[in-house]
Amino acid sequence: MAHSDHTTMRRFLRREIAGTIGLLTDEHDFRAMRRYRSFTFDDHPTYLQQVEALLKTRAAQGSHTTLALFDPEEYAEFCASTGLDPEAPASRTRFTAELAATGPTVPYDGRPLATLLPALVDEAVRQATWEYATTLLTRLGPCPTCGEDIGRAAFDRASTILTRILHSAPAGDRHLVCSVSGPPETLISVLHGDRDADGRPRFDDAEALEFTSVLALGLATRSPGGLVMRTSTAGTADRVCGWRLRGGGLEPLTASEVFDAYCTDVESGDLLSPESGVDYCEPPDLAEEDTAPEHRH
User: Fold this and answer.
1) Per DSSP, which regions of 5-62 are E strands?
2) Which of 57, 226, 229, 284 is 20 to 30 Å apart from 194, CA to CA?
3) What DSSP state is assigned to residue 202?
4) How far is CA 268 from CA 57, 265, 272, in A?
5) Alpha carbons 181 and 194: distance in angstroms, whole number
6) Whole-angstrom Cα distance, residue 143 to residue 189?
7) Per-residue model confidence as pLDDT tens digits over 234-285
8) Quick check: 220 and 297 in contact, CB under 8 A?
9) How far lies 157's CA from each of 89, 150, 231, 239, 289, in Å?
């Protein structure tokens, strides 16, 4: 076989290989990597420019690339646990391969890095929130009265509640926010959804899993918190309604309570100007059996 044929075959094979780039998203992480002599970049903006140029080149060649969040502290721990030399570029490649399999990633789709970086950070936060909520739910163990797994029961109940909310909401795009207060900090989860051609709720599965886990944690631990839903439909005012988490259940907020919540700065407590084109209203009615079961774990 001629040498040119081998070259052509390798070129086609390169197009078949999916790659992952471990990305340092901020200055703090970039400076942490500068302690390694083999990491030769001098400043973060130049580093991002070079990464973006590489991404564009790979895309032009028909190659698919995934972006992963590269955490220098996790990298150091990985090298220590595996006995790898953190100075070796091959160690960073090995760590990046681990990220591709287990960590948060986003595909490069041609958008500028300035747009993709927040999406990657959001994905990392969502995965961390889901893992934390799931861990706490697992630690709750069985109910001393009935023996049922408290975390699993709370997750099933939260799934039922979410399904009921989505099916009873008016048509349009939905934006839901669930917050659960507790040590060491408040957990916040966001879920975006709309309806398909048949009118059925449609949303991202990963978002829904995280959202349900956070809601389940609030229900199981009877932690204070809330759930707010905003529905947007072309040509009409957005509708905002909500519930508070209380006593392991959901309690509907009045229209004035939703207004107060939306027009108060969460950090400072200062009043905010009301948003134009928004109706603050009472939430759809949820069946009692969905929100307040007879047996409380």
Assistant:
1) 19-23
2) 226
3) E
4) 46, 6, 11
5) 28
6) 26
7) 888 889 999 999 888 899 999 989 888 777 765 566 777 777 888 899 898 8
8) yes
9) 48, 10, 23, 25, 10
